[in-house]
Amino acid sequence: MSKQTTGLRGVKAGSTSICTVGAEGHGLHYRGYTIEDLAQYACFEEVVHLLLWGALPTERELDALKTQLRAHRQLPDLVVRVLRSLPSDAHPMDVLRTGVSALGIAEPERDLGNGVTVAVRLLGALPSMLGVWHLGADVLDVDVDDHATYILYMLKAETPSELECRMMDASLILYAEHEFNASTFTARVCASTLADFYGCITGAIGTLSGPLHGGANERAMELIEQFETPEDAATGVREMLARRELIMGFGHGVYRVRDPRNAIIKNWARQVSEAMGDMSLYEISEAIERVMWDEKKLFPNLDFYSATAYHMAGIETALFTPVFVLSRCSGWAAHVVEQRADNRLIRPLAEYTGVEARDYVPIEDRG
Ligand SMILES: CC(C)(COP(=O)(O)OP(=O)(O)OC[C@H]1O[C@@H](n2cnc3c(N)ncnc32)[C@H](O)[C@@H]1OP(=O)(O)O)[C@@H](O)C(=O)NCCC(=O)NCCS
């Protein structure tokens, strides 16, 4: 198999009307709207409506969705008990995966009606799962309105600043959807077997957790914070490249020129750093970006400056990839709904590279 087609690079594995990534590094659209317009003008709840129902909401529809999301912050007792029984040093991605499974038992899809209903239920419940696990069930009583603020409260247990909320809202929009990325493809493969909605989302969370996919934002933070100055970072990254190490938060499976989401999140990382009066991580990040371009012509993907933006907003590193889940669940859900609407079991072929057919050897005759 050629290097070009391993990992299904360049292979069209199905069709979708939800999103196109713009292979040249410009042109990322959700249902026809540019990512730049959505990140600047929309709120996350509008994007959820766009992804799940195919159109931006009217004011009434937006209010109705916000009301539903608020109502869905509450968790059944079974889920609270499961979450509270998990160790405090568990990785929060494992906590979310477990929480989704538990919710699927407490409120099976057959009781909720259709996939979109489950999707909204999950979007409302996911931030609460993190809050209940690491802060306790009382945290659910907090009275905040919009989803981004609620998420920040569940992560930090304190009222976030307005700038942090706006950054989080934009970040949720950027992370919401990205065509046939690995976790979405997982969700679609799972949906194609007619598995239930929770199973599709659980599988997607597992796929997202890997460092080559969503886990890259946590690894990017670990990289950035090991350096004291931009000069240290430039030297350190050059040494890592010489050792042929991967630099997390750089490169992309589809984009070849730039990641169109990077400029937006970089701008937010700068703004949050300025507001905190501490530009050190941002400047170290820029130094790494310069070296990566000079040495490898590689550009930052969305995960790289998300790390600095989240860190400066006071979010713990282990919660970075979980934030990705709280957003991308909307895209996964839209794809599960789309897959189900015109389903055929996804079952590709493999190129066999094993030994030729041979005779079975009884165990007593094996050397
Ligand atoms: C995203 C990623 C998995 C794409 O992998 P891919 O499609 O195989 O990458 P490419 O084919 O463009 O790689 C071209 C070359 O650049 C190298 N490269 C790609 N990303 C690199 C990185 N982040 N650091 C160092 N080298 C990198 C590859 O090793 C390859 O080198 P080679 O030709 O000597 O084998 C890869 O860029 C990566 O591992 N990035 C770091 C993890 C990350 O940020 N993931 C989040 C993605 S949104």
Mean pLDDT: 96
Outline the low-pLDDT stretches.
Answer: none
Q: Structural class from helices and strands? A: mainly alpha
Strand order within the widest beta sheet: 1-2-3
Number of strands: 3
Would you mind describing this structure in some detail?
This protein is mainly alpha-helical and 367 residues long. A three-stranded antiparallel beta sheet has the order 1-2-3. Helix content is 58%, strand content 2%. The protein starts with 18 loop residues before the first strand and ends in a 26-residue tail after the last helix. The chain is globular, with a radius of gyration of 21 Å. It folds into two domains: 17-162 and 176-209 and 320-341, Citrate Synthase, domain 1, CATH 1.10.580.10; 217-312, Cytochrome p450-Terp, domain 2, CATH 1.10.230. The structure holds coenzyme A. Coenzyme A is lined by residues 212-213, 216, 246-253, 296, 298, 301, 303.
Care to give the gist of this entry?
This protein is mainly alpha-helical.
Give a topology summary.
Blueprint: E1 19-20, E2 29-30, E3 33-34, H1 35-41, H2 44-53, H3 59-71, H4 77-84, H5 92-106, H6 109-112, H7 115-135, H8 147-156, H9 162-175, H10 182-192, H11 197-208, H12 216-224, H13 230-242, H14 262-276, H15 280-296, H16 302-312, H17 320-341
Antiparallel strand pairs: 1-2, 2-3
Helix pairs in contact: 1-9, 2-17, 3-7, 4-5, 4-7, 5-7, 5-11, 7-8, 7-17, 8-9, 9-14, 9-16, 9-17, 10-11, 10-17, 11-17, 12-16, 13-15, 14-16
The protein binds coenzyme A.
